[in-house]
Amino acid sequence: MKKLKSTSAEETEKTGKKIAMTVKPFDVICLFGSLGAGKTVFVQGICKGLAVKDFVNSPSFKIVNEYRGKFPVYPEPRQKPRFSKTGMGKRQKFTRCGVYHIDLYRLNSAGEINDLGLDEYIYGNGIAIIEWAEKLGKKNLPKKRIEIYIKIKSENEREIKWRRYP
């Protein structure tokens, strides 16, 4: 599991942006952390890294916010794609994708989650980012996923850990 320390909201957002550069098609990003830990700020960073132009906020009352973004595509060696510069010193091709920001905070059971049909977003054609993923229950989490844990260490300090499964 990778780990780093953030001492500001800006650093937390930048970490999200870095993680976005590793995202692959159909990835599911599961966020864990207490209220006020910085999950939404982290999602804002991911969305910036995925070139989402819209204002990104927590969909606590709507459950899902849908955005249009782009994610990096690593072409086959024989292809000659058009490239754009990323800000990280690497040249990558980008393709459009749906970014689905899901917030399970207001839901109380896996049954409520199932009734909403969120699996269409989680297993759909895009990238799903799930805040309060623990509400799905470990056995209901997608097998292929990125888990991100944000822990409050002090008023401004956060510990961020992440791991890709499998």
Would you kindly provide a written description of the structure presented here, covering whatever features stand out?
Strands 1, 2, 3, 4, 5, 6, 7 and 8 form an eight-stranded mixed beta sheet that branches. The chain contains four helices and eight strands, in the order βαβαβββααβββ. The two termini are 12 Å apart. A hairpin with a 5-residue loop joins strand 4 and strand 5 (91-103). The chain has a single domain (24-165), classed as 3-Layer(aba) Sandwich (Rossmann fold), CATH 3.40.50.300. Helix 1 (9-20) crosses helix 2. The longest helix is centred in the N-terminal third of the chain and has 12 residues, at 9-20. With 166 residues, it is α/β, with parallel strands linked by helices.
Descriptors:
single chain; 166 residues; alpha/beta; Rossmann fold; eight-stranded mixed beta sheet; 8 strands
How many beta strands in the DSSP annotation? 8
What sort of overall outline do the alpha carbons produce when their principal axes are compared? globular
Distance between the termini: 12 Å
Number of helices in the DSSP assignment? 4
Percent of residues in helices comes to 10-25%
Compressed to H and E, one letter per element, the order equals: EHEHEEEHHEEE
